[in-house]
Write a structure and sequence with these properties.
By secondary structure, this protein is an alpha+beta fold. It is built from 7 helices and 10 strands. The protein has helices at 17-31, 42-49, 53-65, 93-99, 118-124, 170-178, 196-202, and strands at 69-72, 76-79, 84-87, 104-115, 131-141, 144-154, 184-193, 209-219, 222-232, 236-239. The strands form 3 sheets. Strands 4-5-6-9-8-7 form a 6-stranded antiparallel β-sheet. The longest helix has 15 residues, at 17-31. Mean pLDDT is 82; it is low at 1-6 and 84-90.
Length: 256
């Protein structure tokens, strides 16, 4: 297999200069720089490659849009970590990361038994007087923060859950310790900017894009978990296979 060769200079020719510079920067990202390393400043790139500021801004802007670089206001532009792609299927964070060759880790930020708020209570089919477990965790892959997660589970069918090792897979605990195998789920996904709390936990700038997953999971038809997860959009992407169902219409929500 021949190795891809990239010119180390920007030259006049049929290929636009911003595309040449993008290829040079991409080779640097893939071969020289580590995630979160700074890339040369705009001034340095202009001087080094003898191109205009507009050319530099176009090349860098494209790499930012592609998720290969990210900007921090007042500090510069940095190399983004490679995204982890997830298939849309029912699995725990721990299982998902291990299957993709990453080392998962979890920090439990809080765990208690309390009254569930109305949305979680409705999703779990609880009465006002029923108790629930609230588990808040920070999930990481290869030591880098990936997601902030807040889970609600019904307390009555899961006695002593908070005494278990909640840094491991809760799905495995439910299956092995309680015989509750999660076999289906309903999930909604949207995007939002990181608030100050999640910006600090996930080590991203305030208002950085996050993917938010809200999921209710079931064991034999009974709701057992209602969880909201905020994932770093620069490190996590979702892959979906779509099938056409003509009788349902043509909206995007009809093809999952």
């Amino acid at each position: 297999m021949s190795e891809k060769r990239v010119s180390v200079n920007v030259v006049d020719g049929p290929v636009p200069k911003h595309r040449q510079l993008r290829e040079i920067l991409l080779a640097m990202i893939e071969g020289e720089l580590v995630p979160d390393a700074p890339v040369p400043s705009e001034r340095e790139l202009v001087a080094r490659f003898k191109v205009s500021r507009a050319t530099v801004r176009e090349a860098v802007g494209r790499l930012v849009a592609e998720g290969r670089l990210y900007r921090v206001r007042g500090k510069g532009t940095f190399v983004a970590a490679a995204s982890i792609e997830s298939q849309m299927h029912l699995s725990s964070f721990t299982e998902d990361m291990r299957r993709r060759g990453h080392k998962p880790s979890t920090v439990v930020l809080g765990a208690d038994e309390t009254a569930a708020p109305p949305p979680a209570r409705a999703a779990l089919g609880l009465d006002v007087t029923d108790r629930a477990y609230r588990i808040e965790r920070l999930r990481s892959a290869d030591g880098a923060p990936m997601a902030h997660e807040v889970s609600w589970l019904p307390a009555a069918p899961l006695p002593g859950l908070l005494e278990r090792d909640l840094t491991s897979s809760v799905y495995s605990i439910l299956a092995h310790d309680y015989g509750r195998v999660l076999d289906s789920a309903a999930q909604t996904v949207w995007a939002e900017g990181a608030d100050p709390l999640r910006a600090r936990l996930l080590r991203v700038p305030p208002a950085a894009p996050l993917l938010v997953f809200r999921k209710t999971s079931y064991a034999s038809g009974r709701p057992m978990e209602h969880v909201t997860s905020w994932y770093r959009a620069d490190r996590y992407q979702v892959h979906m296979t779509l099938e056409r169902t003509p009788h349902l219409g043509s909206g995007p929500g009809h093809h999952l």
